[in-house]
User: Which sequence fits this backbone?
């Protein structure tokens, strides 16, 4: 299967390869989700640390408070960006899954048609054998 970064899929492998590819893609999304969770946890720890620093910095020193506010805004923006990236990757994965499902449906239809053609040919062979008396 060839895949561009935009999620366009062209089927060029047998059905067995498609199933392993799909699970590989799902695994990749799970790994991304785990990575996001780890980053979210780290950000939570940083926020806790910032909150402690803010409470300790309630002195007249406003410069430190401004720095803490800036750091908090930075981390919030970072988290928002990570969430947007994950959402985009999940959306891309959904598109790939739809394409793979369409490929699978096409393969199943072709398999059914081939089976029907084989059965029809076997029936014709039997008719011809009966006509010529071949046993």
Assistant:
């Amino acid at each position: 299967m060839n895949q561009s970064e935009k999620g366009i899929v062209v089927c060029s492998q047998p059905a067995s390869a498609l199933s392993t590819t799909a699970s590989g893609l799902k695994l990749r999304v799970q790994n991304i989700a785990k990575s996001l969770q780890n980053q979210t946890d780290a950000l939570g720890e940083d926020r806790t640390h910032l909150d402690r620093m803010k409470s300790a910095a309630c002195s007249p020193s406003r410069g430190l408070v401004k720095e803490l506010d800036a750091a908090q805004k930075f981390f919030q923006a970072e988290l928002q960006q990570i969430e947007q990236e994950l959402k985009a990757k999940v959306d891309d994965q959904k598109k790939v899954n739809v394409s793979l499902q369409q490929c699978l449906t096409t393969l199943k239809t072709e398999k059914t048609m081939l089976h029907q053609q084989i059965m029809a040919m076997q029936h014709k062979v039997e008719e011809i054998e009966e006509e010529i008396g071949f046993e």
